[in-house]
Every structure is written in C-alpha cells, then in structure tokens.
Specification:
single chain, 218 residues, mainly alpha, 10 helices, 79% helix, elongated, disordered N terminus
Length: 218
C-alpha cells in the first residue's frame, strides 16, 4: 500500500468518493476500502465507521465470512469504546448487529444468532421486526430440540404402514375374524403420529413465547 506522500487524492475527498459508490457496488466497496485503507483509518470516526459499515455489507453479500467476523467484531469494539454513544453510532451499531446475526444464520449458528438478536431486542425493544426475527430463531431452536418427537411419529407411521400391509395381505385372507380388530386399531396408530407432531410444534411454540417474554422483561 502506498503512503500518503505519494497519493494524488486529498484526504478530504475520500468520504466524498465513498458516497459516489452505488449502494449495490459490493466489489467497488471492497476495492475502495483496500486501496484507501490507510486514509480511511485517519478519517473522523463518523465517516470512518460509516465506510466500515458499507465494507461489512459488501463482505456479507460476497460471502467472505471469516473476514466479515473479524471486521464486525472490530467495528463493534470501536463503537462501544467511543466516549459518547450517539444516536448516529447507535444506528450503525444496530445495523452491524443485524448483519452479523444474518451472517451467523447463514452459517447455521442459530444459538449465536439468537444472542445477537437478544442484544438487538434490548437495544430496540419497540422494533417489531427484531421481535419477530428473534421469536423465529427461538422457535427454530425449540423445534430442533424437539426432534425426538418427530422421530417417534415416524416410527408410529412405519408401524401403521406395516400393520396396513399385514392386514391386507395376511390378516384378511388367513385370519378374517381379526379383520374387525385391525380396522379399529389402524386409525388409532395413524392418529398417534399426527398428535405427536401437533404436540411437538405446540410445545415448541409455547416455550418460544415464554422465552421471548422473559427476554423482553430484562
């Protein structure tokens, strides 16, 4: 990287150049931040952190996860260590956390994404989008933890299928007197997995609601 002395661009023009990059110009943001990295470092913090936010968005959209996590953690640390947590910094901090949570979701790190959204919920308790997103993450995790019930329901479906085949090919021809009993048992076995699935989803939903309420009361 060149030093300031052999740059032809004035430092005061850096932010103006940044503003002229199209919002979806992710490769342009990466090239800009890499080329002018030293100049960006000495800008006023308001300008510096806004450029870093755009850089993070570009890293996210271009799926550069490892570098994204490194830069996002750095940006969060820098914002939280400012003397004053202004409204402008709060907005940028909020946006960085949202992108970070979405990156964690992309990596299927649901619990880590939950923690980020919990921080966002505490930061902006009136934000309904954050509330819904957090609930969906909690609900997804609860469903995953209730997967044992889905396994049981699949087992009952297999048993039901086996009994249905046995009834058709063996019981009716060989043991016609047992046909009535099997006709009564089969609907019962078919209903059990449906009830188990309904129970598991309802249980996950209720637990998710309780967790969300608990978080909101912090």
């Amino acid at each position: 990287m060149s030093t300031f002395s052999n740059r032809t661009i004035k430092l005061s023009k850096i932010f103006e150049m940044f503003r002229n990059i199209p919002e979806q110009g992710h490769y342009e943001y990466l090239a800009f931040c890499n080329f002018y990295s030293k100049e960006i470092q000495v800008l006023a913090f308001d300008e510096y952190i806004e450029i870093k936010l755009a850089y993070l968005k570009a890293l996210f959209h271009l799926e550069k996860a490892q570098l994204f996590h490194k830069i996002s953690n750095q940006a969060i640390f820098e914002i939280l260590n400012q003397e004053e947590f202004t409204e402008h910094y709060k907005i940028i901090y909020h946006q960085i956390l949202v992108i970070k949570a979405e990156q964690l979701i992309e990596e299927n790190k649901i619990l880590a994404a939950q923690e980020v959204y919990i921080n966002l919920r505490l930061l902006a308790p009136e934000d309904d989008h954050i509330k819904r997103r957090l609930f969906n993450l909690i609900y997804k995790q609860e469903q995953y933890e209730a997967r044992v019930y889905l396994g049981i329901s699949v087992l009952f479906l297999i048993i039901t299928l086996f009994l249905g085949i046995s009834n058709h090919f063996f019981i009716q021809p060989l043991l016609p007197k047992m046909k009535e009993t099997f006709d009564k048992v089969l609907p019962f076995f078919f209903a059990i997995p449906i009830l188990i699935i309904l129970f598991s989803y309802s249980y996950a939903f209720i637990r998710s609601k309780k967790k969300l309420i608990s978080i909101s009361q912090r």
